[in-house]
Amino acid sequence: MIKLYHLPVSFNSRRIWIALLEKALPFELVEMRLDGDQFQPDYLALNPFHHIPVLVDGGLRVLESLAILDYLEAKYPSPPLLPTDPAQVATVRMVELVTINELVPPYGLLVRHLMGANIEDAAAHQARQRIGTVLAFFEQLLGEKAYFAGEQLTLAEVVAGTIVPRVPGVGVLLDEYPRLQQWSRRLAGRPSWQQSEPKAADLAASRARMAAMAWRSQP
């Protein structure tokens, strides 16, 4: 059986969880605690970089969320989460990479800022502007479609849909992006999003841990 080593509050591992649910694959969740579990010898044998997620399928181990998603799509192609039309494939890949490269870094900075890390207000302002640029791009790319590639839910939603709905939590509202608001509500209604939604206790524990780390990092 497939095993997914994950952290409930991590959008990186939630992507894989959602993909597994959307494909209706049998799998086992192995919950990690990043206060030491990731440095245990058994886990380091799976991932020497000591982060999550890791997917194990039989004798195969796959690291990095995008690589895991590509593996699942290739090994278990039904139902598909990747279109066949070249333009739609390009759109899906754009959304994935823009999310990873342009949205995650400023979002992470603002989370640390809210937790009390020593980050200048100017840097936080620039991070909000950068997130706004991504949201405007996504709003235009989505257009009048239900999903980024049309009427089919794809890996674009699996990747972007685990972080875009979170940005109001760092002070970037979605009010100016009505299409993204509707898209986010559409995703929130899917059983895979509901089943993988982090629990309040997990979120509170994560915030407490991050606040403690930010306090310790102060000069």
UniProtKB/TrEMBL annotation:
Its EC number is 5.2.1.2. This is Glutathione S-transferase. PANTHER family: MALEYLACETOACETATE ISOMERASE. Keywords: Isomerase, Transferase. One of its GO terms (molecular function) is glutathione transferase activity. Residues 1-80 form the GST N-terminal domain. InterPro entries: Glutathione-S-Trfase_C-like, Glutathione-S-Trfase_C_sf, Glutathione_S-Trfase, Glutathione_S-Trfase_N, Thioredoxin-like_sf. SUPFAM superfamilies: GST C-terminal domain-like, Thioredoxin-like. One of its GO terms (biological process) is L-phenylalanine catabolic process. Pfam families: GST_C_2, GST_N_3. The lineage of its organism: Bacteria, Bacillati, Cyanobacteriota, Cyanophyceae, Gloeobacterales. It comes from Gloeobacter kilaueensis (strain ATCC BAA-2537 / CCAP 1431/1 / ULC 316 / JS1). It comes from the Bacteria.
